[in-house]
Design brief:
The chain has 134 residues and is of the alpha+beta class. It contains 4 helices and 6 strands, in the order E-H-E-E-E-H-H-E-E-H. The chain is globular and about 40 Å long. A 4-stranded antiparallel sheet has the order 5-4-3-6. A two-stranded parallel sheet has the order 1-2. It starts with a strand and ends with a helix. Helices cover 31% and strands 19% of the residues. Strand 3 (47-50) and strand 4 (53-60) form a beta hairpin.
Length: 134
């Protein structure tokens, strides 16, 4: 899942490099775009109810070299990690139909650590991994 609130940041980053192509939903590799939920709001174990669909947050999204290729510059993955604009992974607990614009209901889990906090904790390890691909 990826917050639409982050898209302006990426559009600006690409624009600074002369890439002005409009970015549509799915551009940064997300399967679901969300509005109104950010990494500070969501924790591992939280469940997200979207109509009949039930998802469970499993961790922060960790970009790979494919993200650099998609964004058009070599440090995009590093910028994603450093900016905290990573999004998160979910597992599917219950399948169903998803409808654009459907309301998302956050069903809190134990709230031990937000996605943003988990990403900050893992950042040094992730930075070392990203260096291998640059």
């Amino acid at each position: 899942m990826y917050p639409v609130e982050h898209m302006a940041f990426w559009q600006e980053q690409r624009g600074l490099l002369g890439m002005n192509e409009a970015m549509s939903y799915g551009f940064v590799g997300e399967n679901l775009s969300v509005e109104g939920l950010l990494e500070d709001d969501v924790s591992v174990g939280d469940r997200l109810s979207i109509g009949d669909v039930l998802l469970q947050v499993t961790g922060p999204r960790i970009p790979c070299v494919k993200f650099n290729w998609r964004m058009g510059y070599a440090k995009a993955s590093k910028h994603m990690i450093q900016s905290g604009r990573c999004g998160w992974y979910c597992s599917v607990l219950q399948t169903g139909a998803l409808v654009p614009g459907a309301s998302i209901h956050l069903l809190p889990g134990r709230k031990l650590m937000s996605i943003a906090d988990q990403l900050r904790l893992q950042q040094k390890h992730i930075d070392r991994q990203l260096e291998l691909f640059q």
